[in-house]
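Q: What would this chain look like folded?
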Amino acid sequence: MVMDIGAKAAVRFDADAVKIQETPHILLCASLFYFRIPSALWKERMEQLKAFGYNSIDVYFPWNYHETAEGEWDFSGERDIASFLTTAAEVGLYVVARPGPYICSEWDGGALPAYLLTKGLKLRDNDAEFLGYVSKWFDHILPLLKQNQAGEGGTVIGVQLDNELDFYDCHDPKGYISALRDMVLKHGITVPLFACAGQGGLLQASGLAEDVVPTCNFYPDNREAEFEDKVLHYSGTLAKLGYPLLVTETNRAHYLLRRLLSCGAKLLGPYLQVSGTDFGFTNATNNWGKPLAFMTSDYDFGGMISPEGHIREEAYEGRLLGRMIAAYGTPLAEAASQGLSTDWKLIGQSDRVVGPYALQLKGGGKLLFVTNLDDQDKELAIVMENDTNTKAASSFKLKSGRSLALPSQVPLLHWGVEGSLESSTAELYMAETNDTGAGLAFHTEGYGEIVLLLDAAPVDMKALNATVETIEGGKVRIAFEGKEDSICSIINSDGHTLKLFITDRMKALYSEGLNDADDTINHGKPLHYSDRTEMAAAEWRLNHFDAASPMNKKDKRGPSASRKADYLEQHEIYRGYAWYEATVRLPEDKAVKGILIRSGSDVVSLYAGGEYAGTAVAGGGSSYLHLSNGLQDGKLLARVEIWGHSNFDDARLPGLRLHAMKGIKGLSAITEVRDLSRNWSVYRAKDRILHKELIESPDSSMWPIVNFGGWMSPDHPAFEYYRKTFRASEAADSWTLHFQGIQSLARLFVNGKEIGEVHPFDPYFNISEHVTAGQSVELTVFVERVLGLPSGQIYLYEGKEADNFAVYAAEEEALLEHAESFRSQSGTTEFPISLEPGETAWLYATTVNSEAGKGWRAKVSGTSLKMTVFLEGRIVGRLWLPSQTSRPVMSGGSPDSFYLPGAWYEGVEGSLTILLEAVDQEKQGCLEAIQFISV
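A: My prediction, written as structure tokens:
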């Protein structure tokens, strides 16, 4: 099947090739995200990519980056999509556009605007109301893509619908993808549409909707032994549907990209070859931790180009692969995978070596791919399957972690020369042609040979640091040791000259091209960057301020009508910081032992009567903070930071659901913590079918009494009913059960009514609405226990619920206004800087741009501090330094450094402003040093 909209489509995803203006291409496509790179550097990053072998970029377009609040749109400045796409066309890069509506990308909420969470929608599904909001986004983004698509003067060659939908519980993928397709077509998009599968679910990701190409994302271990088998399965499945194998995301190692190429992939899309920064409040939370993780502001998976634009070693591998693809050109772009070759085999040290996998080139010849998965170098040879004289085979060295594409019977006519390239133990990586002939460059890591079959006897042959001879069958063999550069020059009978350049692989990586005039290779050197620290900031000043008070009293969003706490999105707070103020009517005869935070996320720092009680990171679950000094005045304040909405949908924590909101749902002053773990009546059941008679007040007089989960059972799994009664305190109005340490599956019933499933990652249950003060409460827990896994202990938290909530909010502008209001009161300071637990402060400095004008990488050392860093009024980094208690897993990049873009200095000097929060209840926060390294 050909994805062809219109009679003369500018771009086609044919079964055998990607064709742009009728020319076949292998797309070597790197992620480059405009929203993570200062706009002044967009062109530089594009030119870097192109210089290192890439011809395409894939680009997400985050909906919530452009719709900052409902109905408020911004496509200017750093958000100027039209400028970005125009620049890509000027540089000469094709663009694979990915406008969502959901993008994942470890971005806040996967780019879905947080206001959608309050609408009661079925996100990412065939839901008319949700699609209505999507249409408003598409009304803004799709005209920009249309103006810049191939065939209309631009270089956009494909548009993705949603992203990895097979990871999400979409009930109607075909209907949903079809609806997105129809919207896109309505806006005049004529380039191919596609939908990518994140975990191999082509049907679940695309619905196999008509005129939508299913594509694959692969993230294996780079040395996974059976990887080609998996890829070839999908390649075959897609071929039956009439589509090419397009790998829209994969690992960044070009070693793996070669393995994908061997399977016939037409698009090679390593994710995040160009790193960046999540500026502002755009980070996500996700399940890359235990399970919760906070994404760092530094967004860097180790790709070719660092966030500050430094070229890394892997970039040279990219250039080598790009040159190899260009050297074979159209024949490779239209090549067909033949899988594991049945004509050729490996001999020698072939254990932990895969291949040869064969690509049949269009017009004749093959590429044979061999890959060393081992940590040891191998001595190998490739011989015909039925060859009995293997002793004559030319062997070669295949180093650890290498994948080579070796030519077999490739017509030299591809390069304008009569004859064929019969075999080579060195990889062809570059070709240049002119009117007098052709130059072919090979790289090797030891001795080897190249064999040619010419149509007629050559007029002349000569070699330097190699031997050249005519062998049986009129073939020409060039043998080399590989210790120094070799060249062989062959003049054919038609007067054309074929020059073969053979060099060490490391030299090939850094090669700048062929020099035909003096028969040499122009060798370059890798780029190196200084790691020397410099004085980039001075005049450090510090000011402490009241942490137990909102930083933006002007932006009050309450009290709510119910006097109860609610999520921040319900108050139209979608990012940044917020403060909940509340009061508790304290009982006269009981002291407050602690505070229970209900459904808190992302970062909740609690102050009771003005004193710091601790910081909780519960991932949307509940948490309990002990109060050493009780609560005297009944006043509570919770400072909440929205680190970011989840970009995944993971049921293990409430805050990891795609629809999860932020903030808190309540605070309860706990006056009694009761251990309910002992003296439960237990009934051993035969199966997991719930029996109503065992839940609704059964006669349990003959049930044994044991500790919760303590019945010794031979069953596996064991199905058990546990029952217990307690009397609720007359002075309380809040009751919460805590199933501490539970690893079993369990369902909770209160007075015979089912409350829900007990969750190991969120083991708190608020049962207040099912309890009457002073009355008996009957608990029943149905447990499915697996041998060896604990059922934990059960605690009851009784207390008084807080009310009279008022909510305040502050994003970047309000935070900076607060900082400026305290600047005049600040005093000089020096490192190390210490804050007591719970304290907050503003740290100020003047910073100068680097000598080259490209800014700085700032490395931070310290403990137990959270930092929000502003440069010239923009948040450039949010850090959480190592802590003994509440710090979550930090993932995605460097957790202890930030990038100061030189392009954002308004002059030679810039203002550096840092919010410091000491968030370890048991230890001082300490900022030991900030070291600056010039970009």
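The radius of gyration is 32 Å.
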